[in-house]
Amino acid sequence: MSRTWRGALALAFTTACVLVAIFAPPVAQPQSYHDFADQRSLFGIPNFGDVASNLPFLLVGIAGLWALRPGGRAAFMQNAERWPYLIFFAGVFGAAFGSAYYHLAPDDNRLVWDRLPITLAFMSLICGLFADRVDLKLGRTLTMPAVVVGLASVWYWQWTRLHGVENLLPYLVLQGYAMVMVLILAVAYPSKYTAGSMIYGVVGLYVAAKLFELGDRVIFSAGCLVSGHTIKHLLAGLATYWVLRMLTARRPRAQGQVT
Fold it and tell me: Which long-range contacts (CB under 8 A, 24 or more apart) does 47-53 make?
């Protein structure tokens, strides 16, 4: 596939998502979403499993920010490539607190603080991959606008909810867009580093996390040991760790080498 066709594919998909987010009928947040299977308390912490399982985000966020410091283990040929991933790991770090805060007493108001750092991580990851695989300068330029759009999708949902015209759709579209765009970039554009194929592990782990989330009650009912949502947190945390592994394992690849 030529570079022109690859760019057209990415542009067409982006345009389609924007049109759906703007013109499709509004979607409300189902209140049943807050009714998680495992509501047990431990050490005085309500919903302990879903709260404590955010610890991997905290650890990976700290480890990622440390690895991306000047002289750290993460590999970058140019310093400008570092910024989207710094935002990514800051989002991962923030997700530990936002998600834990939400799961202590799940409701729509707290869910905002869960979704904001997650969206920060999604959008910056796309820009990091874009800077690596497509164009460094454009990827760097797009980072802040993409982050603003992501955060705005969450605040828009909150604003519409408070004004009686609730619409979660832009956030849902953006979340789906992020994962599909990561795949488009991974498949259509080779990385200039080795270990580029590790991004497929990130996508696979996140998809598995979403499947466990959907099976929250079914999994918990099978012995009442752990819920699907708790496992979802652990798998999503592992996905963010896999991004860190990719950045620390990679090296600039030789001319013509594809990863």
Answer: 47/103, 47/104, 47/106, 49/226, 49/227, 49/229, 49/230, 50/103, 50/227, 50/229, 50/230, 50/233, 51/100, 51/103, 51/104, 53/230, 53/231, 53/233, 53/234, 53/237
Residue type, 169: L
The H-assigned helical ranges of the chain are 3-23, 48-52, 55-67, 82-104, 108-133, 136-162, 169-188, 199-214, 216-221, 228-249
Is the dihedral angle over the CA atoms 49, 51, 52, 54 positive or is it negative? positive
- Can you tell me whether residue 28 is helix, strand or coil? coil
Please tell me the distance from the alpha carbon of residue 192 to that of residue 253, in angstroms, as a whole number. 6
Q: Which domains does the chain have, with CATH numbers?
A: 38-249 (1.20.1070.10)
Q: Could you tell me which of 234, 192, 237 has the C-alpha nearest to residue 57?
A: 237
Q: Is 49 left (phi over 0), alpha (psi -120 to 50) or beta?
A: alpha
User: In the structure encoding, which two tokens stand for residue 243, read together?
Assistant: 């991004």
Q: How far is 89 from 64, CA to CA, in rounded Å?
A: 6
Tell me if 259 sits within 8 A of 195, measured CB to CB: yes
Cα 142 to its chain centre, rounded Å, is 17
Distance CA 2, CA 125 (A): 24
> For 50-83, how does the pLDDT look when each residue is reduced to its tens digit (9 = 90+)?
999 999 999 999 999 999 998 899 989 998 899 9
Coil, strand or helix at 42: strand
pTM, 2 dp = 0.93
